[in-house]
Amino acid sequence: MSEQISVNDVHWMMGALQGIDVGLIVVDTDYRVVAWNDFMENHSDIRVSNAVGSNLFELSPELPSEWLLRQLQAVVALNLPVYSTWQQRPYLFRFKSYRPITGQAAHMYQNITFLPLLSTTGEVDKICISIYDVTQAAVNEQNMTALNKELMKISRTDRMTGLFNRGHWEEMAQREFKRCLRYGHISTLVMFDIDHFKGINDNYGHQIGDEVIKATAALTQRLIRESDMAGRYGGEEYAVILCDTDQDGAEQFCERIRREVEALSLQFDDQSVSFTISLGYAQIQSSTGALETWIKQADAALYHSKANGRNCTHRYDPETISLPG
Prior knowledge:
single chain; 325 residues; alpha+beta; Beta-Lactamase; Alpha-Beta Plaits; 2 domains; 6-stranded mixed sheet; 13 strands; 21% strand; elongated
């Protein structure tokens, strides 16, 4: 179809296109409907006889009037076509989706074309609005986007706890480590694990052991901020980077989560299970050197807590805590 169409062509064109699966509307520069094809009648339940001669905005008051007016005015002013896809605006007319394959869509997704129609003197005095049903393509794209997001989530999330898995957590930790060194920011790494976890599995069974891991993760998720990074580092070991937090703030976080875990009592049928955690933390320093060193420092502080009675928190101090290896 030519981008510039004579009004003299409109009548035969509309007759030829009445039965096609595309909505066609022609309006004049006062936005009164000149033509309204079968597609529009069938989907809007507005008969051609009622549509023709009516103001488009009064005929369909649910239209996005400000947006639509800008498109129509641009076509007239520039004498050029204007296009809108469903990604920009899902629909112009809220029609029901009627195709069985796209039954999951609440409405018809539409691509819209606005074409200038020229009078015999070469001026734009009417505009043709074409409405294309692209629901199937839109739903397919949305499904693919949702699937990709889910696959991405699965690839970076620990299935049992919902925290980041170790691989993704280490990627994020590396970025945070570099950010801190580059801009002189202070963040603190916390490592903690569940005390006597083997005893929990031996005494209560692995299913209850799994529930203890999940409960600890859920509590961690509740206590961290959106900017923090929590991951399941090993079987019953967790790692949290407290972004832009110094060792005093880390101490407060550690003690809060330690006390809340200690207060937990998980009920399983007639059994009540309580447990504790041990924690260690290390504030990043300009001399830390590498992410692996930072992790070793926090881990050494954790094992210092375990060696000193468990259910406690210790800060990494190079004068009192030695790094392994």
